[in-house]
Structures are given as C-alpha cells and as structure tokens.
Amino acid sequence: MPLAAVRRRLPESALLLVTLLAASGWLFSKAVLRDLPPLLFMAIRFGLSAMVLAGLVRRRQRWQPGVWRPALRGGLLLGLAMMCWVYGLSLSQHVGVAAFISSLGIVLAPFAARLWLGTALSRRAWLGMGVAMAGMACLSWRPGGTLAVAESWLLLAAAGQAAYLAVNSRDMAAMPVLQATAWQLLVAGAACLAASALLERWQGLAWQACWPPLLGSVLLATCLRFVLQGWGQGRLGVAQASFILLLEPVWTALLAAWWYGSGFSLQQGSGAALVLLALLLTRRN
Hints:
Elements: H1 3-32, H2 38-60, H3 68-91, H4 95-102, H5 104-117, H6 123-140, E1 141-142, E2 146-147, H7 149-171, H8 177-199, H9 207-233, H10 238-245, H11 247-260, H12 266-283
Antiparallel strand pairs: 1-2
C-alpha cells in the first residue's frame, strides 16, 4: 500500500484503537472495584490523569489564564456523571449491558443541548430517543416491571454524560483542549474525592492488588485514549469519527464475554441492537 494511503488511514486506525482502549477501561475499572471503593477509585483515576496531562501541557505550551473558569462547569458535570457511572458499574453483573446503557448519553445529548443551549431538535433525535428507550427496556427491565438498581445509576450517568457533552461542545471550541481537559479531570477528581471522604471508608484497602489495573485505567483507558482521540478527531469529519467511536459498547460487550464468559440473552441482545441503531440514527448527518 502506498505511503500516502497509509497516512490517510492513520486517523481511522487511531480512533479504532481508541474504542478498544475505552472498552478495556471497563474491564480495568471492574477489576479495581474489587479492591477500592468506587468514588475513591474515580478520584485517583482522574487525579493521576490530570497530572499526566498537565505534564504534557507544561512541555508543549504555556498555561493560559482563565481556562479553569469554563472548565469548572464541565468538570463538575463530568464528576457527577462518573460518580453515577462507577457506582452503577460496581453493582452491575453484566459489563456489556452496562456499556450499552451508558452509551445512551450520546442519544440524550441533543436533548441536553436543547435544555442547556436552546438548540433545535431534529426528527432523527426524536426517532433515536424512541428506539433507545425500547432498547433500554430490553436491556434492563426485570419480571414484574422493575428497573434494577445498577441500571438506574447507569441511566443517571448517561443523562449526566449528555449534559457534559452538550456543554463541553460549546466550551471546548474556545479553549485549548489539553489545558481544559486537565482542569476538568482535576475538578472531577476533586469532586469524587470529596464525596468519597464523606461516604466511603478507606481503611483496610488492598492497594497492592489494585495497582496494575488502576495504572492501566489511568495510562491506557484515560490518558492514551484521550491523546489518540483528540488527534484522530482533529483529522476526520465529525460524522466519520462519531461512527467509529460507536464501536465502544460493541467491543466492551465482546471483551466482557471473552473475559468473564458472559453472553447476552435474546432480550439483552435485542436491546443492545436497538441501542446501537439509536446511536447510528442520532449520529448520522
């Protein structure tokens, strides 16, 4: 293959790797949660990631004054969303199902943008919402018409992620991406740390056992993923990049099935397919 063709394929390959790193992050997180409380884990993950990104910023560019102010809002929204996410993940018995429920944040993002920014809603957004709700019902509904606790927290996380995506899409356009993200991760980590100090116990934690997956979560699923995603998205169209990133819940389900030996029931498989269809409907231009 000619060198020029290889270079054209590099952004797509980078984003494909991003989806695999994001999927591996689910397994890393699930492993860490066996030894650490959920909120403390997120505080450490975000705090260390912020330090790594801050080091990159210091080597490549000057810190701009005032970036932290708009990043504060995004960091708080991210922190709240990830608190719900990690708590739901700690309770979930099926990582693949959890990944598809969490991906509903992409479907809900246009509605959050309508609420926060006053943007118009397209027919495709309403159609995607309807399909996604049908998929959500298949994924999480239990006999007797009840919603499991884990799925409830993951759905709250998806709503928080939608608000974060809506606000972040506007704020990031006017800020240096690395600096703003470092600030957001720092704020999110501080929020998780404060909540952990109030709600969790830190005595008797198995630190030695959790360090390998924790480092994988920080370096691979957070820092490397972010750098590759930013590089790849800057070289591809929004629709093309978004389509590739939709693979994250698919890879997560496949990795979980391979690692844990857990499959999908017919009802769960139908729900996952409906959620993926909803994502395709809402992200297509």
